[in-house]
Specification:
Helix content is 43%, strand content 16%. Strands 3-2-1-4-5-6-7 form a seven-stranded parallel beta sheet, sandwiched between helices. α1 crosses α8, α3 runs parallel beside α5 and α4 packs across α6.
Length: 234
């Protein structure tokens, strides 16, 4: 098993998370996939790794994922934090409960597994954490209020984490997708993109692949927009 690299993907049963798992496996990583639907468990096995059926809002489920990787391969090189969908409503109509749900979905989804993998990566003196965020983290849209607010917080967290753990050769970056083909398509949304098309989950996965690679070894604390230019002037 010497020389094998290991990647974990949360919320990886479908969409961008699943595409990331497939791409990292193609890059030669052993993969572990977490999802609540059971699709991640099947995908992990399909890719020659393993999967866990559980939630990224559960510390216990996340520990099953990290423990599973350590038991099989003894290391964790890459963590990709994907997310589901949080509450949406007009801004002043969002209840306290739904704000908390949004923070669970879009912020703590990254914080929880990061706490688990960081000591492992410190012991290795290497590691990469990549959070799938949103193009609207800095220029928020009323369509996705809990996502925008929580992921603005994730950007701040990422900068603090990157500063703190850079001496241990642990990097953290955010990928900021725009309109991607895992979302429902509308002509209005397509027309708002300078490239006049939706992006693909595979294009997000390719960006994640680069950030996980040695070619990105000097990149940390960054927010990489992959949005067809929709936020270029914002």
């Amino acid at each position: 098993m010497a020389g094998e690299k290991v990647a974990l993907v949360t919320a990886g049963g479908s969409g961008m998370g699943a595409a990331a798992a497939r791409r990292l496996a193609a890059d030669g990583f052993k993969v572990g996939v977490l999802s609540s639907s059971g699709k991640g468990e099947a995908l992990g096995k399909e890719l020659g790794g393993f999967g866990v059926t559980g939630s990224n809002q559960s510390n216990e489920d996340l520990k099953r994922l990290t423990d599973g990787a350590l038991e099989r391969w003894g290391r964790i090189d890459v963590l990709v934090n994907s997310a589901g969908h949080g509450p949406r409503a007009q801004i002043i109509e969002i209840s306290d409960e739904d704000w908390h749900k949004g923070i669970d979905t879009y912020f703590l989804n990254a914080v929880r597994p990061t706490r688990l993998v960081t000591p492992v990566m410190q012991s290795q003196k290497s590691g990469v954490i990549i959070n799938i965020s949103t193009a609207w983290a800095f220029e928020p849209s009323a369509m996705f209020p809990t996502s925008a607010v929580a992921r603005a917080g994730l950007a701040a967290y990422t900068k603090i984490f990157a500063d703190t753990y850079a001496p241990d050769n642990i990097r953290m970056n955010n990928v900021l997708p725009g309109w991607i083909d895992s979302l429902p398509a509308t002509e209005e949304r397509r027309g708002s993109v300078p490239m006049k098309r939706y992006g693909t989950s595979e294009e997000i996965a390719a960006t994640i692949s680069f950030l996980a690679s040695d070619g990105a070894a000097y990149i940390t604390g960054q927010n990489i927009r992959v949005d067809g230019g929709i936020t270029r002037a914002l």
